[in-house]
Design brief:
Number of helices: 6
Oligomer: single chain
Low-confidence stretches: none
Number of strands: 9
Domain Contractile injection system tube protein N-terminal: 25-177
Pfam families: CIS_tube (PF19266)
Helix content: 10-25%
Protein name: Contractile injection system tube protein N-terminal domain-containing protein
Length: 219
């Protein structure tokens, strides 16, 4: 029996859009939400160091570079309890889920063959084609464009055919900001929406008083 007051569990995951922010190509939901998620920020600023003839006030020249790291688990145990309903897991284990994540860091075979054909025909490709736009979704308040910077897999169990049955996946993501995408890109619109949401949340935080810091007034 499920209590009516029980919250609906939502999953974190990734959404892959066509290059430039086109239609959704696929959605990847994490089987289990990670217990921890780490974020780091590299501040983008100038001034304030006194390196020139005189010190300059510190200025933010752009959004901080945000990096996200998380570890996720993929396990076929539950599905294998009901093999008739999960024929794909019985045949391949969790290999399809791992391959789906690997596709985030590899160009497709068709793209590689197209580049090879252009090279053989003497066509000079100045830039490789734009990759799909990847969004990291961690609740409706955190939908942000990212690129995968690190990806590793530790496979921990196998079936008799050596298909992986359990694995731990580590993902490193770098948030793509307006500095990376410009302001006309679909990803930039999503980043600005994400930043606006963070600003709104900051406005909801209770403010402290000077007295909480042990002072009555500023000098």
């Amino acid at each position: 029996m499920t209590l009516s007051s029980s919250p609906r569990l939502i999953k974190g995951g990734l959404v892959v859009l066509a290059p430039g922010g086109g239609p959704v190509q696929r959605t990847i939901a994490l089987q289990y939400n990670p217990e921890t998620l780490s974020r780091s920020y590299q501040v983008q600023g100038v001034g304030g160091d006194g390196g020139g003839e005189r010190a300059q006030p510190f200025r933010l020249k752009g959004p901080a570079i945000e990096s996200i790291k998380l570890d996720a688990e993929i396990d076929a145990t539950d599905q294998l309890e009901f093999p008739d309903s999960h024929a794909g897991v019985v045949a391949h284990g969790i290999a399809p889920q791992l391959a789906l994540l690997e596709a985030l860091v590899n160009p497709s075979v068709d793209e590689l063959l197209r580049l090879a054909a252009q090279s053989e025909s003497g066509t000079l490709e100045i830039l490789p084609p734009e990759a799909p736009l990847v969004l990291f979704v961690w609740s409706r308040n955190q939908v942000v464009p990212v690129r995968v910077t690190d990806f590793s897999v530790n496979e921990e169990a196998f079936d008799p055919a050596l298909n992986p049955l359990r694995a731990k996946v580590s993902l490193g993501l770098r948030v793509m900001s307006t500095e990376d995408l410009g302001f006309r890109h679909k990803g930039a619109t999503l980043f600005l929406s994400y930043l606006r949401t963070r600003e709104t949340l900051a406005g909801k935080a209770a403010g402290a008083t000077l007295g909480a810091l042990g002072i009555d007034s500023l000098p």
